[in-house]
UniProtKB/TrEMBL annotation:
SUPFAM superfamilies xref list: alpha/beta-Hydrolases
Protein name, entry field: Phospholipase/carboxylesterase/thioesterase domain-containing protein
Highest taxon in the source lineage: Eukaryota
Residues passing through the membrane, by range: none
Phylogenetic lineage: Eukaryota, Viridiplantae, Streptophyta, Embryophyta, Tracheophyta
Length: 244
């Protein structure tokens, strides 16, 4: 018999209001064991006055990677690799939470998802849901994303992505259009560089033509000004923000 669906208690959401005309809203997702407030402070300092940032906090849950010890996590993960089993239920719940946070934005506002590490993985999973028009469980995905940013992350459910996109003309069209920025440090000892590189290759082979992959020499599992500058420039251009 099917086990009862888990319910997920998401933590506190932090919002950084735009300092100028509101043109875009981006949900930004933290890494494993972190919370929304730590990223809201970083994002508030960026020279992107037209963006509203929404920084939710993941549910606290047992994580297999830590032997079942509970911490904030968007989904369960036992091993960071393409071959590890995917926690589809957790991924769908996280992607639905993100979509829900964006669903009340005005119609003329561009919307996107970004994140760091496990948050990046959730953002990339949201990108696949948007392109396929549905979550992993088959329910319709309700919003249309304009930009995806993933720093030091990996792509969940990568093994089946290409076949699923190729099975739908609408998905092929959306994949060719959706702008994605992936950044990864060559010195990352938490999410190895090869996982970021493989994610970029998987996206490209699945027909995601509007993808930028940036590599940083010596960068570990953290972010640096050079990388955040890249994110600012890329978002300004892709979202056609004032002043870009």
């Amino acid at each position: 018999s099917r086990t009862a669906r888990r319910t997920f208690e998401f933590g506190r959401t932090y919002v950084v209001r735009p300092k100028a005309k509101h043109q875009a809203t981006i949900v930004w997702l933290h890494g494993l064991g972190d919370k929304g407030s730590s990223w809201s402070q970083i994002l508030e300092a960026l020279p992107l006055p037209n963006i509203k940032w929404i920084c939710p906090t993941a549910p606290t849950r047992p994580v297999a990677l830590f032997g079942g010890f509970p911490c904030t996590a968007w989904f369960d993960v036992g091993d960071i690799s393409e071959d590890a089993p995917d926690d589809l239920e957790g991924l769908d719940a996280a992607a639905a939470h993100v979509a829900n946070l964006l669903s009340n934005e005005p119609a003329d506002i561009k919307i996107g998802v970004g994140g760091f590490s496990m948050g990046a993985s959730t953002a990339l999973y949201s990108a696949t849901c948007c392109v396929l028009g549905k979550y992993g469980n088959g329910n319709p995905y309700p919003i249309n994303l304009s930009a995806i940013v993933g720093l030091s992350g990996w792509l969940p459910c990568s093994r089946t992505l290409r076949n699923r996109v190729e099975g739908s003309q609408e998905a092929v069209r959306r994949a060719a259009y959706l702008p994605i920025l992936l950044c990864h440090g060559l010195g990352d000892d938490v999410v190895a560089y090869k996982h970021g590189e493989k994610s970029a290759q998987t996206f490209t082979s699945a027909g995601f033509r509007n993808l930028t992959f940036r590599t940083y020499n010596g960068l570990g599992h953290y972010t640096i000004p050079e990388e955040t500058d890249e994110v600012c420039n890329w978002l300004s251009a892709r979202l056609a923000l004032d002043g870009s």
